[in-house]
Specification:
The chain has helices at about 50-60, 75-90, 130-135, 140, 155-165, 185, 195-205, 215-225, 260-275, 280-295, 305-315; strands at about 15-20, 25-30, 45-50, 65-75, 95-100, 105-110, 115-120, 145-150, 170-175, 190-195, 230, 240, 245-250. By secondary structure, it is α/β, with parallel strands linked by helices. The chain has a single domain (about 15-35, about 45-315), classed as UDP-N-acetylmuramoyl-L-alanine:D-glutamate ligase (3-Layer(aba) Sandwich), CATH 3.40.1190. Strand 12 and strand 13 (about 245-250) form a beta hairpin. Bound molecules: adenosine-5'-diphosphate. Adenosine-5'-diphosphate binds near residues 235, 266, 291 and 292. Adenosine-5'-diphosphate binds near residues 196, 233, 252 and 291.
């Protein structure tokens, strides 16, 4: 593996296609959670765009990638929030499909005084996102350097995107979040899988808290045809696992304000720098820097870093 991140090749425009989810999050805070039938007064209401696919697409665009986001929204006011975001952030929206009969994905988040949360999600249009929708973006996927997808959409839709990428020799990344079990015939089309430790266990059909060695589980994925696993480990950084062995990439120490979105920053950044021609190890270091920066601000979209922020943290100034 490349030891020196100065030896980066980073000379082509990153062409990235993200196949994933969009949802609007409605968050408010109360002193405690309500009990059954109770109405409580809350405060600090906030509404903003989210969804792992959408966040990763915005992250890639902030780093200067040519990015298209392939997704399904509702034909409603919440869908308009997504389209406004993509226009502002330079995310291509040519392959967004609108469902007339189904709402845009939405999440209700209640935080208590301690910061614990309660979340109810309605995937809405994301649940209707189909392989046919992805097929419409076939040419775009074929002409990308990297395709990235996640599991907030039907697994067969994510699987179809990975298959199109594999057939065209495009680097395919599966960020297996939220945690779901995925069949080997889908996993085998992912060049790179980026789970956290819980997602790794669930992906392979183990209990979320099963006492198993992460490296053994990564070996299972390698046997299935996955080429590299990047295990994200929060404040402990990330680990690259390949057939040749494993390599720890340390986390960048930062003042943590809110870790939400660290995984999306990490994945959007990994996709962008790999698409630029950068080798895996420095690309993972850039991703870890972006993940760390995403922890330094409240919320997800406001916290996703730009290229110069990532470069500054990597230089250490
Ligand atoms: P997820 O949110 O998907 O579980 P992680 O929490 O592992 O993902 O975060 C993704 C990456 O972001 C980590 O691998 C790490 O590089 C970086 N990161 C996350 N939390 C921190 C932290 N507290 N300090 C520094 N870097 C962090």
């Amino acid at each position: 593996m490349i030891e020196n991140s100065q030896s980066e090749i980073h000379n082509q425009k990153s062409v990235v296609t993200v196949v994933g989810s969009f949802a609007v999050g409605l968050t408010l805070r109360a002193d405690r959670f309500p009990v059954k039938g109770e109405t409580l007064l809350g405060r600090d209401f906030d509404m903003g765009p989210g969804g792992k696919g959408s966040n990763q697409a915005v992250q890639a665009a902030r780093l200067g990638a040519d990015v298209e986001f392939v997704a399904r929204l509702g034909n409603d006011n919440f869908g308009a929030i997504g389209k406004k975001l993509y226009a502002e952030e330079n995310v291509g929206a040519t392959f967004l499909v609108e469902s007339d009969g189904r709402n845009t994905g939405v999440g209700f988040i209640v935080l208590d005084a301690r910061g614990d949360n309660f979340i109810v999600l309605d995937p809405g249009a994301n649940a209707l996102f189909s392989p046919d929708d992805v097929e419409r973006a076939r040419k775009r996927i074929q002409s990308s350097q990297v395709l990235i997808t996640q599991l907030e959409i039907p697994v067969e839709t994510a699987g179809y995107a990975l298959k199109l990428a594999r057939e065209a020799n495009v680097i395919s990344i599966l960020n297996p979040a939220p945690a779901r079990r995925v069949a080997p015939d889908i996993l085998k089309n992912a060049d790179i899988v980026t789970p956290n430790e819980t997602e790794l266990r669930i992906l392979l059909g183990r209990a979320p808290d099963a006492k198993v060695n992460a490296i053994d589980l990564c070996d299972e994925l390698l046997q299935m045809g996955v080429q590299r696993i990047i295990l994200t480990r929060g404040a402990r950084g990330a680990m690259i696992v390949t057939r040749e062995g494993y390599l720890n990439i340390p986390a960048f120490p930062v003042d943590v304000v809110d870790t939400t979105g660290a995984g999306d920053a990490f994945n959007g950044t990994l996709a962008t720098y790999l698409a630029s021609g950068m080798p895996l190890e420095p690309a993972v270091r850039h991703a870890a820097a972006a993940g760390a920066l995403a922890c330094t601000k409240l919320g997800v979209i406001p916290a996703l870093p730009h290229a110069q922020d990532v470069a500054r943290l990597l230089r250490g100034d």
